[in-house]
Amino acid sequence: MTQAGARSWTESREGREVKIPEGLWLSCPACEEMIYRKQMEANAHVCPLCDHHFRIGAQERVRQLSDANTFEPMFENLSTVDPLKFVDLKSYKQRLKAEQQKTGQKEGVQCGRAFVKGRAVMLCCLDLTFFMGTLSSVVGEKITRSIEHATEHDLPLIIVSCSGGARMQESGFSLMQMAKTSAALARHDDAGGLFISVLTDPTTGGVTASFAMLGDVILAEPKALIGFAGPRVIKQTIRQELPAGFQTSEFLLDAGIIDRVVHRQELRNEIARIVDFANK
Amino acid sequence: MAIKYHLEFEKPLVDLEQQIEVLEGSAEAGQSDLTKEIAALRKSHHQMLRKIYNSLTPWDTVRVARHPARPQCRDYIGLICKDFCELKGDRRYGDDPAIVTGFARIGSHKVMLIGHHKGRDTNEKLACHFGCAHPEGYRKALLKMKLAEKFGLPVVTLVDTPGAYPGLGAEQRGQAEAIAVNLREMSRLKVPILSLVIGEGGSGGALGIAVADRVAMLEHAWYSVISPEGCAAILWKVANEQTNLAAAEALALTARRNKRLGIIDQVIKEPVGGAHRDAKATAGSIEKWITANLAELKRLKPAGLPARRYERFRHIGQFRESRPAPVTTDD
Ligand SMILES: [Zn+2]
Predict the structure, then answer these.
(1) Range with lowest mean pLDDT among A41-55, A144-158, B9-23
(2) B162 and B82 in one domain?
(3) Which residue of A147, B211, B242, B314 has the fewest CB atoms within a 10 Å radius of its CB?
(4) Minimum CA–CA partner of A142 in chain B
(5) Could you tell me the CATH number of the domain that includes residue A238?
(6) Which of B184, B224, B323 is facing A77, going by the closest CB pair?
(7) Is the separation of the CB atoms in A104 and A5 below 8 Å?
């Protein structure tokens, strides 16, 4: 069930980028053993030998988290425009089209109602395969509408984050999505709504500094890179090597910033458990 | 007029300034009456200044916003506030001098004033990390905003930061969480909030104290999701004069463009040649903006402010909506 065109992708391990090519077998970027792709995919895209969590797209994430055939996509009628007529080496329009062709998706988040182990939830999954899961007006709007929908219907809100941060091509509009989503979460909180934030590899920049860090409960997959600034920027600023394991889920757990590190195979159980504890 | 540091595009002014200085020197020495000559030079200087500042590129604007002599938060506090009672510390970790907070009197209003401070001399700059705040800075700001809310005081914030500090301690202490919480809590604060970008409005670090009922920018300030250099390095693969200019253009970071996009509500004019040429006049314009807007906002019921603020931010962003979303709810 991997999405079309996303069979090869890039992972980063301790600062180096590793390209995962197509093929029946692949080399795990963590343990460097050859593993059988189908076996890895059947194992929730986790290395059967070392538990390395491979990056997955939103479709696969939705499939893994929700009960079979219960996800009803919402707000699919929103599409991205180019408000600033942004052109760098390529135009934003060209880049958007390329991302859309590569992934078969319109934008970098999937939102909708779903059931998780029989519990009705509002589910949003950012899509790293689309424009690095960056925060565009549409991504911000879909998440805000999802939050509002969850508030209105007293649904537990689950947002699975993975993002490179801001969508630079939308500049100030991208920045303001941070305020917009956070403000919607204030209302959700005022109404007594539950929000479980799930952080996955990588979650950085404006997404971390807004809704991703505002969960009533914050879960993270093992060894995910999570931070405000990217490791490269920090290295440049302080001009020294970063300590091993810096900005990983485990580091944030030790620092008291997240609640739990959860194996991907356990996410559904954990979400259902927390929903029950919160009486939702 | 004694500006020691000149920006590249101000170079044509240097000659004139030197001539004026020389003439003034000899006039003082009583050698001859040079009033007319000096006046003529001053006039052409002013005209040239106006011309230069009327045609700044967005990248020039960024450089004006970073001018070492540009007035900073503490300068404006000195010029605008009749009384300033600084309050320090986040009660959790420490006091971050990159964010200044305190009770202040502005005109007839008592407010909580909060602002980024970059620092003047080397020691102060280092202590302030050049205006890049740590989590304790954002948490201090929020603590004082809550204090303001408790006593019904409006909040006024002055934004001037290249961005929140990217470092080991900042990450370990939850930089992202600190900013995120500020965004959420500012959105529901039950007192009026005004935010003004006085210099640099760098990304989340700026927004972390700028979720306000009214947001304005000084004419030569910039406000964007990333600095032009950062953007150039990523999208153009290299940051140099040319790509910085291209990125500054593309990011729509000037006050005028932010106003046109609806991200800010007002542009506050600076004196000809920028705030660094006349801090007092700039402070006067800022004070006027603050007092006028506070007078308006104070007429509204405090309990209704969060809903208005919500609407203000709720509608920022552009996209196409093809047809009403299909109704999928059955409850
Ligand atoms: Zn492995």
Answers:
(1) B9-23
(2) yes
(3) B242
(4) B319
(5) 3.90.226.10
(6) B323
(7) yes
B133 burial class (0-12, 13-18, 19+ CB within 10 angstroms)?
buried
B273 in the same domain as B229: yes
**Which of A153, A178, A255 is facing B204, going by the closest CB pair?**
A178
Closest residue on chain B to A187 (Cα): B188
How far, in Å, are A138, A208, B135, B153, B225 from residue B179 at the CA level?
22, 9, 7, 22, 14
Residue A228 has its nearest CB partner, among B171, B184, B188, at B171
Report if residue B3 sits inside a domain. no
Q: Mark which residues 189-208 of B lie under 8 Å from A by CB.
A: 203-204, 207-208
pLDDT in tens, B240-251: 999 999 999 999
Q: Are residues B166 and B137 in the same domain?
A: yes
For A144, which residue in chain B has the nearest alpha carbon?
Answer: B314
Q: Are residues B39 and B174 in the same domain?
A: no
A127/A151 same-domain check: yes
Whether the Cβ atoms of residue A124 and residue A143 lie closer than 8 Å to each other = yes
Q: Could you report the per-residue pLDDT of B163-174, keeping only the tens digit for each?
A: 999 999 999 999
Residue found under tokens 């006085």: B198
B87 in Cβ contact with B99 (< 8 Å): no
- Provide the residue range defining the domain that includes A2: 1-54
Structural domains in chain A (count): 2
From A33, A54, A75, the end of a domain falls on A54
Tally of domains within chain B: 2
Q: Are residues B38 and B179 in the same domain?
A: no
**ipTM score for this prediction:** 0.95
Cβ of B187 within 8 Å of Cβ of A179? The answer is yes
Q: Which range marks the domain in which residue B29 is found?
A: 8-55
> Using CA atoms, how far apart are residues B218 and A193, in angstroms rounded to an integer?
39
Say if residue B263 is in the same domain as residue B114.
yes
State pLDDT tens for residues B193-212: 999 999 999 999 999 999 99
Of residues A232 and B131, more confidence is placed in B131
Has residue B310 been placed in a domain? yes
A81 → closest Cβ in B203, B204, B319:
B319
Q: Helices marked H in B102-161 — which ranges?
A: 122-127, 135-150
| Residues in B 226-285 with any Cβ partner in A closer than 8 A | 226, 230-231, 234-237, 246-247, 250-253, 258, 261, 263
List Cα–Cα distances, A273 to A156, A185, A197, A214, in angstroms.
12, 22, 14, 19
Nearest CA in chain B to A250: B172
pLDDT at A2: 41
Same domain, yes or no, for B124 and B38? no
On whether both B20 and B155 belong to a single domain, the answer is no
Strand partners, B218: B268
Any A CB within 8 A of B211 CB? yes
Q: To the nearest whole percent, how much of chain A has pLDDT over 90?
A: 89
